[in-house]
Please model this.
Amino acid sequence: MNIITIALVDMKRVLRDKKTLMYMLLLPIILISILGTALGSVFSVNSLEKINVGYINEDKGDLSKSFDEFLEYKEIKEILNYKKIVSLEEGQNLLEDKKISAIVHITKDYSKTLKENNETLIEIIGIDSGSFSYTVVKNVIESYIEYANSYMAISNIDAKKVEFKKYDVIKNESIETKGNMPRAIDYYAVTMMVMIILYGSSYGTQFMVELKSLPIGKRISAAPINAREMVIGKALAAIMSMSFQVLALIGFSKYVYKANFGEDMKTILFICFTLIVFSITLGVVLTSIFDNELLANKVLGLLIPISTLLSGGYFKITTPDSSILTSKIMYLSPSYLAQRALFSSIYKGKTLYINEAIFILWGFSIVFLLVSIIFQRKKEYA
Model:
């Protein structure tokens, strides 16, 4: 009951602070409008040029030959310009040199696995899974697989009957860009929202300081409330306050700017809630450690812009998945994890990215909260 009381009192006070609320809402709204308008041409696709891909077929069976024939179709050659490669290493070098946009790889047991009625894959390897070129290649391959699976089911996987007489799916799926990639307004609606959620960590620093310096904090300290209840109550108030602001921002972006947040709003909101919890507990733990609001806010003021920059929040960054920047430094950015999860949900990317971000951010949040409680108890007994 003490935790709920603290949370409700603090949340009411935050919502009455119109100056802070206007700043937290107007800043991302203005930035979304400016960046979305100024950089709109960067995200638009005016024409569809041929996409260069590397193709390696290690299968010696009959069924993979149908894919070789498929790549020679006139409709496909108008979209893809494929180059046969002898190894994945060669393909990786071509990717790094930006001579191709993706690698299409058929494994050596492709035909054998299919004839045994087992699942097999045509691998697509790319630099940027969110790029337009990669999306087109993915849609082409997925369309082929759907058509091939249907045809082979009818022919009972008879290799002699696996012939393609027409292919109309490509025109409907791969050339259409609307909804398959973000416009500038869609991109910055997500990145600026992530940034402002991280700036909400200042609520965590503010509430922790109030426990000690302001009159209300002194009254709470004199009450029969332990450190754990105070920390959790303050953190809960900040989380609820920030959640209301994020809901307002999403609503404005979605219905005024017509930004795309996808069809699965439950997942979008849960990712945002996860980042809010991370952000607030980050502010709480920094204030608990430094015991100084000014120093904690200075650290946050340094970390948040760097995190936003590394994640491509201000402008999109494309780097190879195997590079140190992506695999090491970017994973230290909560902005990167949250943005990748949000875009994966909106544009139906890998669910692995969503689960990974949620797991990591919640893990850090729990650690931050535990560390805060430990530091508060140490100060009680000091």
